[in-house]
Amino acid sequence: MSKSYLVVGGCGFLGRYIVEALLARGEKNIHVFDIRKSFDDDRVTFHIGDIRKSEDLELACKGISTVFHTASPTHGMGYDIYYSVNVIGTEKLIEACIKCGVKQLVYTSSSSVVFNGNDIVNGDESLPYVDKHIDPYNKTKELGERAILKAKSVNGLLVCALRPAGIFGPREVQGWPQFLKAAKEGKNKFMFGDGNNLCDWTYIDNVVHAHILAADNMTPNSPISGSVYFITNDEPIPF
Ligand code: NAD
Q1: Number of DSSP helices (H) and strands (E) in the chain, helices first
Q2: What residues does 202 pair with on adjacent strands?
Q3: CB 167 within 8 A of CB 204
Q4: Pocket test for ligand 1, best of 16, 70, 106, 179 (most atoms within 8 A of CB)
Q5: Where are the domains of the chain?
Q6: Is the CB of 94 within 6 Å of ligand 1?
Q7: d(CA 126, CA 197)
Q8: Does the domain made of 5-238 have the CATH classification 3.40.50.1000?
């Protein structure tokens, strides 16, 4: 049976690249769910709605076999908005997937779910969640991830969580363009550590590839469902 895809947050940086990768390999049944519309494409069905509203989600999830959940508020917001979208919204999306008989739910988590500000060197997926997060975004990404993993096998749903660190690439607006702007304006007056710090930044194509691989390979008999995966480039880069 041919697959149908819904990219939640599909008008964002990562979500749109996932849509483009699906289009590039000839997928015919591609849907986007987002609170805003950032591009046009006749080959894509757009559902404009709020992930915090079950009725919006259920309309979009009908007839879908694979959901990619990439939605999250932008950086620098308060706990309430992160909690409502990343936790309540994720729970409502899970409910809609279960109700509509969606087969696979691939969640874009974050490596920050295991980060409390202390150095991590050669960390892997055996790292536990941290007791205290450094910001509300990280905390709510953990809670969203936990909700996703708990939904494994409910009504046959297959789930996994992918954890990139910072994502970079063309059309990215929240990270590197802001760092470069600050540098150009002479605002880089502080240095953490001795200048040799390494930080994991993942190129957008690698993050997209991980999402597609997860969806292509997450069958009922594979170990993918219920698992989390860090998504990295080969090497961390100086930061
Ligand atoms: P983005 O802000 O570009 O895209 C997120 C999309 O979610 C936006 O289009 C936004 O409109 C949508 N959205 C927000 N609230 C919504 C709501 N209430 N209902 C429906 N849609 C809503 O973000 P991104 O950089 O593409 O990040 C995608 C995912 O990857 C996020 O889950 C983020 O936590 C995760 N992540 C990002 C990075 C990074 O460096 N960008 C790193 C690790 C993890």
Answers
A1: 7, 11
A2: 167
A3: yes
A4: 70
A5: 5-238
A6: no
A7: 23
A8: no
Regarding the beta carbon of 144 and ligand 1, being less than 6 Å apart is answered no
Q: Name residues whose C-beta falls within 8 Å of residue 89's C-beta, 6 or more positions apart in sequence.
A: 50, 51, 52, 71
Tell me the pLDDT band of 32, cut-offs 50, 70 and 90.
very high
- The residue written with tokens 């805003």 in the block is 36
Q: Please list the active-site residues.
A: 137
End-to-end CA distance of the chain: 46
Distance 154 CA to ligand 1 centre (A): 25
Six-digit token pair at 85? Answer: 């979208």
Q: Which residue has the tokens 């259920």?
A: 58
| 131-170 pLDDT tens trace | 999 999 999 999 999 999 999 999 999 999 999 999 999 9
Q: Are strands 201-203 and 166-168 parallel, antiparallel or unpaired?
A: parallel
Which tokens belong to 78? 């308060």
Question: What pLDDT sits at residue 169?
Answer: 95
Model pLDDT for residues 162-217, shown as the tens digit of each residue: 999 999 999 999 888 888 898 899 887 777 788 888 888 999 999 999 999 999 99
